[in-house]
# Entry
Amino acid sequence: MITESINLSKLRTLIDALKNANMQIKTLEKSLAEAEKKRDDANQTAKNTQSEYEAKITSLTQANQQAIDKLTATYEAKISQLAEENAAELANLQQTLAETHQHEMDELTSINHELSAKSEQLTYSNQQMINRIRGIES
# Structure
């Protein structure tokens, strides 16, 4: 009976140890399940965050492209407008230059006519003086 009592005591100790081990296993399984849940939640959050960032990047890329397109159109229109204004100004300057040149040419022609007339008068006066001098000498 002592042997049975020792065996029974050992059996109880073993059962208690198994119960304790079983509780530790359940605690570890619960901790593992919680850790897996946290990992799954973190992965889902990362996927959601990545999707949000990708959506934001796509949205910003589209907005940037629209802004670039708008600025390009604005600058092209402004460049075209400035080119037209420059062409008109150049035409005006060329017209003004042509008119100024014509005016100067007209003035020079007038001065030339006056000088020619004075030259003719001087030539006539000189010829008359020469004739008088010759008449006096003879």
About this structure: Helices lie at 2-137.
